[in-house]
Amino acid sequence: MKPYSEMTIYELEQELKMIRKHYRHFQDLDLHLDMSRGKPCTEQLDLSMEMLDELNGEVDLRCEDGTDCRNYGVLDGIREAKELIGDMMENHPDNIIIYGNSSLNVMYDTVARAMTHGIMGNKPWAKLDRVKFLCPVPGYDRHFAITEYFGIEMICVPMSPTGPDMDLVEKLVSEDDAIKGIWCVPKYSNPQGYSYSDETVRRFARLKPAAPDFRIFWDNAYGIHHLYDLDQDYLIEILAECKRVGNPDLVYKFASTSKITFPGSGIAAMATSLNNLEDIKKQLKVQTIGHDKVNQLRHVRFFGDIYGMTQHMRKHADIIRPKFEAVERIFEEELEGIGAGSWTKPKGGYFISFDSLPGCARAIVAKAKKAGVTLTGAGATYPYGIDPNDSNIRIAPTYPTLEDLQIAARLFTVCVKMVTLEKMLDEKRSNAEV
Amino acid sequence: MKPYSEMTIYELEQELKMIRKHYRHFQDLDLHLDMSRGKPCTEQLDLSMEMLDELNGEVDLRCEDGTDCRNYGVLDGIREAKELIGDMMENHPDNIIIYGNSSLNVMYDTVARAMTHGIMGNKPWAKLDRVKFLCPVPGYDRHFAITEYFGIEMICVPMSPTGPDMDLVEKLVSEDDAIKGIWCVPKYSNPQGYSYSDETVRRFARLKPAAPDFRIFWDNAYGIHHLYDLDQDYLIEILAECKRVGNPDLVYKFASTSKITFPGSGIAAMATSLNNLEDIKKQLKVQTIGHDKVNQLRHVRFFGDIYGMTQHMRKHADIIRPKFEAVERIFEEELEGIGAGSWTKPKGGYFISFDSLPGCARAIVAKAKKAGVTLTGAGATYPYGIDPNDSNIRIAPTYPTLEDLQIAARLFTVCVKMVTLEKMLDEKRSNAEV
Q1: pTM (2 decimals)?
Q2: Which residues between 284 and 313 in chain B have a beta carbon less than 8 angstroms from any beta carbon of chain A?
Q3: With an 8 Å Cβ cutoff, are A295 and B265 in contact?
Q4: Could you report the predicted ipTM of this complex, rounded to two decimals?
Q5: Domain range for residue B140?
Q6: 249-268 in B: which are within 8 Å (CB) of A?
Q7: Rg (alpha carbons) of chain A, rounded to whole number
Q8: How much is the average pLDDT of A274-300?
Q9: Which DSSP state fits B124?
Q10: What would the pLDDT profile of B90-116 be if each residue is shown by its tens digit?
Q11: Residues of B in contact with A73 (CB under 8 A)
Q12: pLDDT digit string (tens) for B41-58?
């Protein structure tokens, strides 16, 4: 089919008429589908059910060092959990703190602590006139919600397939000491599925921030969440790179097993330099007596080691790969070449990012909603919920069944076409009037 | 035996000689005993092992309302957990938020949130020149550590067997709007095992604080932790009392199952007014996607209901009651009538509080340590670790075996006598010189 932009008003009208018919057809189906959040589907959750068998009433709940996981103690995680998560995060176990069930909560705490107590002896952020964060966009709405909650000013930095615009990051960070952090999802990014290039990671490690308490918030949420066994993105390990270039304290790195075992009932972790760890533990020891060691042990016993975890992730991939592929196939079939938007083709993670023509995203999401398909709200991928182009839409293909997903994806393309056609017709008509 | 105070110098010397012999005897035993923290013993932990059988690979992990506990969602806890913990806390399920594994962490968060965001529209505490908390003393060291960490000034209020000195609390709270909170362990208090009298609770509910954002931090850690089945302390339920007297938002109430199932792997909760809950949830939704629902379900399935939990607590009582009784018996045998200190006789909770003669506590703890018995550090029960009388020592009888505990308690009395005798002799001799 020829691009919409080359169509006459008459052709556009004919096309819109047909698309509206398609849309009504979907409305008649009385759909209730959800492509809004990056949630694993039931089959994925079933993969971890045997983890619950690992600990039962007959099992010894002592660690290798003899610690009884059932009792108080061990502030920063049991040794074997640090070993396992260390292998998962590609960091030394001594650089790791094992937390509770939510890495988001760890990030929140990290910002909250910087607000009230500062980082490594620097002034608490709450006592400064202005605190700013860089936000690669589009990005993860829950990151932006944390900085917004604390009144931190968010500055957008454009993303590209190789990562954030590093010229801009370097410039801003070196010039403005009110900039205290940057939110990064460096691998299979949320929402694009981009992975930072080697050059991007190297430039991150070599940043020369004006603020001594600037930190990179490196949320490696999808570190081992590949769709393919061989065709995987590889990310230079940031802590090691920072250490190599004499910037050891520059990064807080986060991860969790939320999308490996059970979301909300996994284990979260931070990896960072020993200096940062020492700083953090001053708070940690006041905040809690310790996190859930029984659950840490459960995870360790289930996976055994990183090979066990990798095998487990291949099973996840086998379930969700067809879903990503189905969405991409439908997008290609329906949208390729018509100039109604573009989308990413990630090799891992939980999302596909769709960019409509400017000014169409909100209308597309509203139309989908009206036909029974919930998408992530347009704008959600930008700070303050404001997408200046009104074009980005995050697609989360994992949760629905393959069958439902295909219906939802097809409907989505119908909404994209309908909104795009309406917009183009409006423009062409008003141009014709002039 | 006659009181030390009535002994002559010669008699005191003879007594000290004998006690030192006893002490050396204990030193020869090469002890490594710990009476420092309120930790359940192994037999207590074994009581909950069957909880691990409740959820296994074959079990349906859906809530009664169909929610799959394995996936993301449910910010404030699953309904059945709210019902169970509601019965445990004597509060309506709608007044409850179920958190993660640590009530201490909930209290920390509550203070941290007040620091950065204020309470119900009031100015954030971090923006005030001074913030103060009342601290009934002796009290719980980890409470004091939180307020100390946030630079909150702590004002000591003396405890009595009926609770804090309410004349003083009322006066301070009504006069000074910098006073924003008070730490309370209202039932089987830490360390005395005192329970607030009806009048005390009623006066708490009727406080007229100068600060609109004053809150009572009501840590009902030992709400169902009775030693006896009939001879139990009863506490007027504070939320209901506050509501009855027109002060509904005055209290944050905390509890957990840490000393019911597994410390560190239980579930924690807060109960408070709907207004407070609404205020708190603005933060909660930014902080996390949700707490560990699988563990909530595990607890609910294990206990079934509050009757199941009550039966379970009787098993705990049967294990630790003999330990409390042994300590009390040994203290009576060794210390009754000699005027070397006094101790509490709680009907529940995890501690016995010992008060030596002024100026003796640190020396007693040091002597015990030297003979291989670790006690809670002297001063720990006071803000900033400073006991102005140097007299309070917290005894935690639950963790050691009954056999070890009896040795440790006996040694403790020897240390008490030795330090008291040395001090009295010093004083008598210097008086004699004058």
Answers
A1: 0.96
A2: 286-295
A3: yes
A4: 0.96
A5: 63-304
A6: 258, 262-265
A7: 23
A8: 97
A9: P
A10: 999 999 999 999 999 999 999 999 999
A11: 264
A12: 999 999 999 999 999 999
